[in-house]
Amino acid sequence: MSSSFIFTLICFCIVQTSLGYYDLKNVAYSKKVTLSSRYHHVHYPGWNAVNGRLTDFAHSGHERSPWLRIDLGKNFRIHEIEVFARSDCCAHQLHDLDVKVGKRTHMMLLCGHFTGYTKVGGRMAVWCPSRTVARYVQIQIVKGVSNYLSPAEVVVWGKPIHGGF
């Protein structure tokens, strides 16, 4: 089976079992991504983290507290954010993450924190407080002097806002 089929199947199962949230979808898919820096300036662009494939990845430069920010294009009610590690190597490049969300980039609130390291091909998940609304989602390594950030995929489970919420 292809990795994209398996990823789709896993995502479907997660949505079906997420406490009755059947109308959630990956609102980050194909959205604009900004990295705090780029690895070698041309390779591994940010959009690799929202293209639905676990076989490629985004990659920041080596720096203190690297981050990746997704612009969802409009406000969504955010339920859960999943960050998938690379499946080829380098699990140490995804650790101690703060996951922030906000309606504006200068007003981001902590949705959750993941402490420690993941494993190769691993998954980190953060559930946002009930009724969280955001346009921007940011993941950032917050521990260590200098790091790379290289997620394979970032999935933001959310739904459109209707009725002025």
How would you describe the overall organization of this protein?
With 165 residues, the protein is mainly beta. The protein has a single domain, classed as Galactose-binding domain-like (Jelly Rolls, Sandwich). The chain is 9% helix and 41% strand. Strands 1, 2, 3, 4, 5, 6 and 7 form a seven-stranded antiparallel sheet that branches. Strand 4 and strand 5 form a beta hairpin. The radius of gyration is 15 Å and the shape is globular. The N and C termini lie far apart (41 Å). The mean pLDDT is 88.
Sum up the structure in keywords.
about 160 residues; mainly beta; Jelly Rolls; 7-stranded antiparallel beta sheet; 1 helix
Report how far apart the termini are. Answer: 41 Å
Mean pLDDT: 88
Describe the main β-sheet briefly: 7 strands, antiparallel
Helix percent reads under 10%
In short:
This protein has one helix at 3-17, and strands at residues 25-26, 32-35, 67-84, 95-102, 109-117, 123-141, 153-160. It is mostly beta strands and 165 residues long.
Indicate the topology:
Blueprint: H1 3-17, E1 25-26, E2 32-35, E3 67-84, E4 95-102, E5 109-117, E6 123-141, E7 153-160
Antiparallel strand pairs: 1-7, 2-3, 3-6, 3-7, 4-5, 4-6
